[in-house]
Amino acid sequence: MNWLLTQLFGRLPIGWLQLSHNKGRLFAAVSGVAFANLLVFMQLGIMGALNGSTVAPYAIIDTDIILSSQEGNTLTDSEHIARVWMLQALGVAGVADVSPLYIGNLPFTLDDGTSVSLLVFGVNTTQPGFVSPAIAPLLSKLTLENTTLLDEGTRGMPTSVIDGLKAGAPFAFEASGQTLTAVGTMNVGGGFLADGMMMVSDQTFLQFFGSRSSAAPDHIMVRVADGVSPETVAARLSDVLPALTVRVQTNEAAQAADLSFMSSERPTGIIFGFGVFMGILVGLVIVYQVLSTDVADHLREYATFKAMGYGQPFFLGIIFEEAIVLAVFGFIPGLIASMGLYAGLVAVTGLPVTMDASRAILVFLGTLTACTISGAIATRRLANADPADLF
Amino acid sequence: MSGAPIVVSGLNHFFGTGEARKQAIFDINVTVKRGSLTILMGPSGSGKTTLLTLIGALRDIQDGSVYLLDRELNGATEGELVALRRRLGFIFQAHNLHESLTATQNVRMGLEVHGKGNASLQRAASHHMLDLLGLADRRDYLPGNLSGGQKQRVAVARALVANPQIVLADEPTAALDKESGHTVVEMLKTLGQVRGTTTVMVTHDPRILELADRIIKLEDGSVVSDESN
To answer: What is the pTM for the complete model shown?
Structure first.
């Protein structure tokens, strides 16, 4: 380590030698940084899961443009839109096809007493082009009344049920006083809004949600003609449809808007964002405390170096070297512990909490920055090292 | 200029401000010859340490003039003072070794400040200096594992390893036994004769007075006697 750092810095790695000389302090400092990393990773992981589960429903539909009510917030937190706009959209140049999308939440209890809440998507089974290619071949099975495709990742659903469905064995269960029969599976996973998802025909949907009307779906999906840009068609639709009541968004824009809404307007997004901030603050304070104490403990040595002719850049180099060492040494255990907790969280909740490289790199760079800022603040104590006091 | 490495003229120095302002140095005029070993003596509070720090570019010159290696310290910038200090060797009464560096690494710090030489050359030079001071078997020891005298010898090695033009020492032999103290001062004397290294030393140690070329006595901030051997 000494050799490596000597090559790296082109001088004795005094910062590292100082830190490693006091093992107890080094351990405490590294633990502190690792803990701060853990806090940030957990907040980002859950925030990522929130984002992931926000846009996950988009994976089961296949549309270029989505028409929604202006009063809605996201795909699954929507208000109803008049079906008449669907017909009007069909008349706009570049629109190839349209289809209604119904969304509702269906709670029910399994025979073993497990309560399950599923997000139900009602689609027109004669338009398989509006569901994901993985689901489209199964859509014909839903033409039978009260049949459904069940989410493989549904929280609380016995594995035997899913295995049976995959093997071709239907699964019947009671919901809202009626019997639903699962005839196949799709793979989306649970999120914050529900334990899983379910796809039914629009007819089955309307049967289970008696207060809903075929005249008022949640969204209208729009397929554009080949070779036409969705943005161009969306602009045309915006010109035709009343802006006060209908929101016209491309698929990508709708997903981005949903993420923006969840992260900036929903309290959950704000809370997790605040958690990230708190994690960074904890890390800043811990590193500052360690570095400033270290500077205070070595004032006489620093004053000696000043007397010998070492300039301010040398001392700043030592402190930033310590900051970098703490950042690297704290990040590694923080990352490993976070990955373990992510795995535990996935096993317990089924939330899509995953550690991707971009997040790890982002947190590492953030750790480096936070440690450097702490080091910069700690360097103010160097002014107290007066070589004249040595005599 | 005279060519003397240290020329002090009309030097006055004060501590404190306002009512509490107190003069510590009164009109000192001293010229130190190249290669000489000069000892500053005097009772506690006589101003000898203050004079040493002023000569060592560690305090701002308030009144008067100090030419150090042909550079006027009065009015010099911090950068100029730092550059000048690199040409000096300091030996403190308290060794002030870095606790997390080995003896060799502490000595190397005296070379690294110049930013020249590769690591292996610096290490070899540091070993050589430690060997000369009888610390060949303590090269890789941390200061915490060295005796007081050994630490002081490491501090001497650190001050001398880069061949400074001037050595400023404050009670360098206080922590050393008679033999070690004599060895250190003999080394400084030899450096003066062979390389022209100038040494100014504050000491109360009567054992080394006979080795001095010049003894300056201060009392209450003024020179009361100035004798050459």
So the answer is: 0.72
DSSP letter for A75, please. S
Instruction: Nearest chain A residue to B55 by CA: give it.
Output: A388
Tokens 């005296």 belong to B110
Contact A305 B105 (CB under 8 A): no
- Closest Cβ opposite residue B82 in set A17, A21, A311: A311
Residue B150 belongs to a domain: yes
Per the CB < 8 A criterion, the answer to whether B218 and B42 are in contact is: yes
- Interface check for A21 against chain B (CB to CB < 8 A): the answer is yes
Give the ipTM: 0.87
Tell me whether residue B10 is in a domain. no
Domain presence at residue B149: yes
Q: How far apart are CA B21 and CA B66, in angstroms?
A: 22
CA atoms within 13 A on the CB side of A147: 15
Cα–Cα dist B122/B111, whole Å: 7
B143-185 pLDDT, tens digit per residue, is 999 988 899 899 999 999 999 999 999 988 887 888 888 888 8
B interface with A, Cβ–Cβ < 8 A, is 49, 52-53, 56, 58-59, 79, 82-88, 90, 92-94, 96-101, 105, 108-110, 112-113, 119, 142, 158, 170
Domain that holds residue B47: 33-60+78-228
State the best of B54, B86, B100, B161 to mutate against chain A, taking most chain A CBs within 10 Å.
Answer: B100
Q: If you count residue pairs, one on A and one on B, with CB atoms under 8 Å apart, how many are there?
A: 72
pLDDT in tens, A155-193: 888 888 889 998 989 999 888 888 999 999 998 866 777
Q: Which residue of B has its CA nearest to A300?
A: B96
CATH number at residue B144: 3.40.50.300
- The set of residues, in sequence order, having a beta carbon less than 8 Å from that of A18 and lying 6+ positions away, is A294, A298, A318, A322, B100
